[in-house]
Amino acid sequence: MKRERMAARGIVLALTLFLCWQVKPAAAQDAPAQQPAYTIPEYNAFQACRAETNGQTRLKCLDDFVSKFPKSTLMKYIDQMYWTTYNELKNWAKVVDYSDKYIADSDPKADLPTRVQAFYTRSAVFESAYNAKAPDANDQLAKAKTAAQAGLDALNSLPKPDNMNDQQFADQKKPVASLFYNTMGFAELQLKDYPTAATSFKAALANVSADGVAEYRLGVAYLQETPPLSIEGFWALARAIALKAPGDAQIKDYLRKQLVRYQQSGCDSLIDSQMNELLQLAAGAPDRPATYSIPSSTDLDKVRQGLNILTVLSDLQAGGDKAKTTWLAVCGSDFPEVVGKVIDVTPGTDTVELHVFTGATSDEMEKATTANMDVKIVGQPEASRLQKDDGVRFSGTLSGYDPSPFMLHWEKGKVNAEDIPPEKKEGQTRKPHKVAKPSGN
Q: Where in the sequence is the domain holding 395, given as residue range(s)?
């Protein structure tokens, strides 16, 4: 994820440098001509380093300059050349060191544009320079956060160029501000200051909305808060996936695991359907709709209280949000005894399939000719001896339902042995076996 972000930052940095140098034309390479408090040998050595195109050779030149002229008035420009050279050579820790050195040695007012560049460069490479296993890891993070805030303050102090209007200038600063906020958020995330990290990432996104990495980290921060801001976290992760953040497949897997943990649904298929809905919504808009929510396990536990098969049927047949929430609550649930009337039987060796009707009253059961439940009986082949209009009691696990025509599906069914008739003798007929319908079914 760092590599992709670095590439993006390189593009933004080019724009930033243009902005900075346009604000005040005193570029570092021109500074010696404006500040003659140096010797000719110092100037010639400086120019020799500046003209060197090979990074490693340039470093040796800079080291030689420092050893010969340790108190040169050109030293801050040497520091600038150090950080740009180490950036070219991808020695991120040294980029941080020399950016800090330049910031410490430069004038906050006279060198403001280049200081913004130094703060920006430091922030851009910090994640690559950061060593989480180092004894001073927390100190690295604290310094990065302080530098990013100072960079933001310096950015906000830049005067507007004469050739820009206020909106153009504000727009040009946004990617730079976003980088500073992202660096602060990253540091706060590692320091486990999750609420502050979330605030920083939101500020980053307010400046650059299509930042998948910031969305991902915002989601992580929300989910790590105490208590977690789960819905906000899910939405941010979904936005990261929609924006194709690096590692989006892993982000999707993380989002799914967090949803499972949050909801504790009994059916994996429901998690997948909610994931798909969430991802589709997040792909279409940066902000979560005010009415969008995902029930938690606590919410579903409240729905489960007092439910029986008749209330489940009623809620599911009603459709809408009521059916959706009830199904989330009961899918995968086991019911110990459901009473119904057999409509037809499909015999089998391993599985017997019963089509059954259940209703609220005995009269309704008696008149029924169409099933509203499909029950798969496993490991009980004798259940095939049931026949049309037999009363039956069974236990099972709810696995699905069809809204129209309505059909509730059961798996792992087991028929009460008392309801299974004995084998018929040849030529024998029998009347349907009736089962008294218990209150509440």
A: 309-419
